[in-house]
Amino acid sequence: MLTKYITDLKTELTMETEKKLYTLIVHSENVAGILNQITAVFTRRQINIESLNVSASSIEGVHRYTITAYATRSEIERVVLQIERKVDVLQCQFFEDSEIFMQEIALFKIITSVMMSNPEVSQIIRKYQANIIEVNPTFSVVEKSGKKDDIMDLNRELAGTGCILQFVSSGRIAITRARIEHVSEYLDKISRRFAKD
Amino acid sequence: MGAKIKGSEILLKALTEQKVDTIFAYPGGNIISVFDVMMDYRDKINQILVRHEQGAAHAAEGYARVSGRVGVAIVTSGPGVTNTITGIADAMLDSTPIVVIAGQAASTALGTDAFQEVDLVGITQPITKWSYQIRRTEDITMAVAKAFYIASTGRPGPVVLDFTKDAQAGLAEYKPYSIDYIRSYIPKTDVSPASIEQAAELIDNCRKPLVLVGQGVELAGAQQELQDFIEKGNLPAARTLLGLSALSSDHPLNMGMLGLHGNAAPNVLTNQADLIIAVGMRFDDRVTGVVANYAKKAKIIHLDIDKSEIGKIVPCDVPILGDCKESLPMLTARIKKNSHADWIKEFAPLAQKEKELVIDKAIAPASGPIKMGETVHQVALQAPDNTVMVTDVGLNQMFAVRYFKYRSRRSIVSSGGLGTMGFAIPAAIGAATGAPERPVIMFAGDGGIQMTMQEFGTIMEYHIPVKMVVMNNHYLGNVRQWQHLMFNDRYSLTHMLSPMYQDIAAAYGFDYIRVEKRQDLEAGIKAMLAAKGPFFLEVVVEDEENVWPMIRPGSDVDQVYYGPQD
């Protein structure tokens, strides 16, 4: 982990100014107030959080945060170290898009009568492989999970038909492509090191 | 089943288990039941009633700085604890282990704007290492054990415990809680042998090394390990403000102090060095000058216990993570003996130039009003080697740190990162309490002393033998110096009237001497040092004295300005 941050830090600090979207995956203890501490690290460095998702993780009692933000590589490295420094944070890692599987989910509330009268609406829904999860005489609900670009395209096309009553999209959730589960490894290592009895 | 006891008593038992021997405190409604129990612990715990909660936090800092143990403050909720915020932030920036325990409204009333309720955890999270609300009596021993463990291990820092009234009043069995580890918190990593190899390679092959000694060396208790290291490699060293007493002023490899008003030689030669070995320091902007032009010719080895410091300001070539008490001996064992004689010779002419242009005039002026530098110098000549020096913030601090002599560990208590005016009096109270066997000499200006002067009451009540040197220049001198240098002498609100300190000292029963003439200075200091109890020495110093040398804002670390005669 650390070597990853430190390797070539020298060159990166001096040359890298390009901002891109990074995904942070943070694991923490399930105690009140951690979210504040994590977001405060971004605030202090004037970096906007693009999306944020908090959920349980595969490990009991451990919370998982998926955060995306535009920043330079060196900025994001600093943010990661500052977050990891918090006492109740187990681990914080950052990723580029190529290193993760990621999805977002969107819900559209649309007018049923428009969908019935305009065949274009169901063509669009099929084209994007979205699901209709509710139909009633007044409105219907379309669910689409996928990449942000797909979701935004679907939103634009549906909007063109004038059928949308509500649109909501989740933040990104992501899992790593790595073959090692870093958090579980970390926890194993800690318990091996300290569990004397 | 043991008997159930009140939460407040559990707290005191847990504190005694942490071997707390001193508490700086101020009572109030939401902590009253803890104070009730404290009455039964007067034989076990020294309890000092401060005069304002800010004083409790700074006193806890002073106690921690000299003793290396966790300083403790107990205050009430709301305004009681918001008054400690400055001290908590100060402890965070200066890595000082303190635990502040505050009362809080009952957990059932939280969020209702109850009387003296503030969102303490929310307020203190950004300025603490850990901040925790105790809502259940059963959680007290766990919270106290974690608080002391977190405050004192790894890179030390402040912890806040927000203790609700119902948890204080509730009944529970006392169950001791001990901590081996916290899985989300690794206080220190094992030193990587590979990093030692890489660093040793650089050290053996460099020609112009400079060791930067920070407070981390003191915090680790690695003063001897540092000395062994620099002696083997014959490596010149310089200290940061908070690291001043980590290496004796008399050591031949000690090249002085780094930073804004530090010594010329180490500042200038930072930019000539081909290797910087930073030990337990964090490249504060007061040390680096313009970062982009800092130590450009040097590779950088950084020994630190806090991995978020690596590369934070200055790119690092070889990080050595871990406790420098472990890593320094590993390095010492691995490096070759060396002399660096030619390089070390380069420090002398710069030191000589500073001596002629600055130091001689500051500490031994022939005529004119008394100067701050000579005051500190005279004190340093007479003070015992084990003296603890406490400073306020401003010109008094810069003169004090420059001209005092450091001959024992943990002998400087000063507010470095936060630069807290008003720090000196309460911190000196804490220092004198934490190291009762050592003389405590405090330097302050007429500005800072008027910020926390109410703590004279504490000194009076507990007969705390603090020697207070107030260098009165009738100005907020540091800001005035900047107004002089950068704002065309427009002294906006920096001239300040002082009260009759003689009357104030008399009101508190302090011995007092006012020195206005050079010929009285030595005797005044002698009288102060001979006094048994607290002593107030007012030295009337030159109004518009400036401290030199200086790395002016926007300058590089080697662009040292020696003052008007430069």
Q: How would you portray this structure in words?
A:
The complex is a heterodimer of chains A (197) and B (566). Chain A has 197 residues and is α+β, with helices and mostly antiparallel strands. Chain A folds into two domains: 2-95, ACT domain (Alpha-Beta Plaits, 2-Layer Sandwich); 102-169, ACT-like. Chain A, domain 2 (Alpha-Beta Plaits). Chain A is 39% helix and 36% strand. Chain A has helices spanning 2-6, 9-15, 34-44, 73-84, 112-117, 119-127, 148-160, 182-194; strands at 20-29, 49-56, 62-71, 89-95, 100-111, 131-135, 139-146, 164-169, 173-176. In chain A, strands 5, 6, 7, 8 and 9 form a five-stranded antiparallel beta sheet that branches. The longest helix of chain A has 13 residues, at 148-160. Mean pLDDT of chain A is 90; it is low at 1-5 and 7-14. With 566 residues, chain B is of the alpha/beta class. Chain B folds into three domains: 4-173, Thiamin diphosphate (ThDP)-binding fold, Pyr/PP domains (Rossmann fold, 3-Layer(aba) Sandwich); 193-347, TPP-binding domain (Rossmann fold, 3-Layer(aba) Sandwich); 369-540, 3-Layer(aba) Sandwich (Rossmann fold), CATH 3.40.50.970. The longest helix of chain B has 17 residues, at 347-363. Chain A binds chain B through residues 2, 5-6, 9-10, 13-14, 28-29, 32-33, 36-37, 40, 44, 77-78, 81-82, 84-85, 87-90, 187, 190-191, 193-194, 196, and chain B through 121-122, 125-126, 129-131, 133, 150, 180-186, 306-308, 310-312, 315-317, 319, 321.
Which short descriptors sum up this protein?
heterodimer; A: 197 residues; alpha+beta; Alpha-Beta Plaits; 2 domains; four-stranded antiparallel β-sheet; 39% helix; elongated; B: 566 residues; alpha/beta; Rossmann fold; 3 domains; six-stranded parallel β-sheet
What is the CATH-assigned architecture of the largest domain in chain A? 2-Layer Sandwich
**How can the largest sheet of chain A be summarized?**
5 strands, antiparallel
Oligomeric nature of the chains: heterodimer
How many beta strands in the DSSP annotation of chain B?
20
Q: How many strands appear in the DSSP assignment of chain A?
A: 9
**Which CATH top level class of the largest domain in chain B fits?**
Alpha Beta
- Average pLDDT for all residues of chain A: 90
Reported CATH architecture of the largest domain in chain B: 3-Layer(aba) Sandwich
Shape of chain B: globular
Question: For the CA atoms, what is the radius of gyration of chain A?
Answer: 21 Å
**Main structural class of chain A:** alpha+beta
Task: Please indicate the percent range of residues of chain A in DSSP E strands (runs of 2 or more).
Answer: 35-45%
CATH superfamily of the largest domain in chain B: Thiamin diphosphate (ThDP)-binding fold, Pyr/PP domains
Enumerate the spans of chain A where pLDDT stays under 50 for 5 or more consecutive residues.
1-5, 7-14
Output the number of helix runs of chain A.
8
Largest interface: A-B, 31 and 27 residues
Radius of gyration of chain B: 24 Å
Topology-level CATH name of the largest domain in chain B:
Rossmann fold
C-alpha geometry of chain A: elongated
